[in-house]
Aldo/keto reductase
Amino acid sequence: MRRRTPERGPALTELGLGAAQFGNLYRETSDAESQAAVDAAWERGIRYFDTAPHYGLGLSERRLGAALAGRPRDEYVVSTKVGRMLVPSPETADRLDDGGFVVPATTRREWDFSRDGILRSLEGSLERLGLDRVDIVYLHDPDDHWSAASTTGIDTLVELRDEGVIGAIGAGMNQSEMIARFIRECDVDLMMLAGRFTLLEHGALAELLPLALERGVGIVAAGVYNSGLLGAPRPRPDAMFDYRPAPPELIARATAIAEVCERFGVTLPDAAVAYPLRHPAVVSVVLGARSAAQVNGNAERYGTVIPDGLWDALRETGLLP
C-alpha cells in the first residue's frame, strides 16, 4: 500500500477505511463484522481510519477503537470530527436515531463549534476510541456555521495542534466552495472532500484543487462512488446519487463511462477509485466498508492497473474534462 505525505500532516495510505458503517449506517452491523473489516484493512496495508461521533451516536468510534486496540499506535492514522456534540437525551431513548443510523437515540446531536464544545467533543471521542490522541480532526459539515467554525472552531483546533494534542486539522464537507474558503482564510492542513471530486463531479478542478496545491493543503477524497451510482460495474436503474435517487441523465452518463471502462478491461468502480488519486493535491481516498469482504473488494479495485488510454478515451468522448 503506497503512502502520500502532505506538506502539512501525517503520511496517509492512498486508501483509507471510512467507518460510518460501523455505526449501523442504514442497517445493523455487528462488532465482529467491524473487527473483521479492520483486520482485513490492516492485512491489505491500510493504515488510515476515519470516523466521527455522528456515525451511530458514538458507536463507530467505539467499534473502531476496539478493533484497533493492541495495534502499534505509531503505525496507523486516525481521524475523527468535531462540531456535532453528543448530548444525553433520555426522553428519546425508547426510539431509534433519526440520522440514518440504526441505534437507540440515547443521545442527540447538537451543532457546537465553540471552544468548549470542541474540547468536550474531542474528549468524548478519545474516550470512545480508547486513545490518548488522534492524528487528524476535521470540523464536521460546517456548511451553515461558517462564522463559528472559521473562528472559534478553527482557533481551538489550531491551539490543540500547536500544543501537540492533535496532529493535523481541517474540515470535512460535501461541497468544494467552503473548503476552498477555509484554505484561503484559515490555518488548515488537510481537508476531506466528500463526493465532489469523482468521475461525475469535476467542479473542484476549477478552484479548490489548484488552491490546495498552491497552499500545501492535502485533500482527502471521500464519497468517490457518489452514494453508490459509481459503485457497481453497471449503474442500476434505482441507483442513488448524493443520498437520493439518481436522475436519469446521471445514470446515462455513468453508464457511458462504464462502457468505456469495459473497452479497456476495467470496471466503473475501479476507475472511480483511481480517478481522484491522479490529482497531485489528493493524498488519500477513503472508502467506507462494513465487512472484510467489502474491504477486500475496495482493495482489489485500488490495486487494479488502469490503462492511460482509458482517461484519454473519456476525455475524447467528453465524459471527463
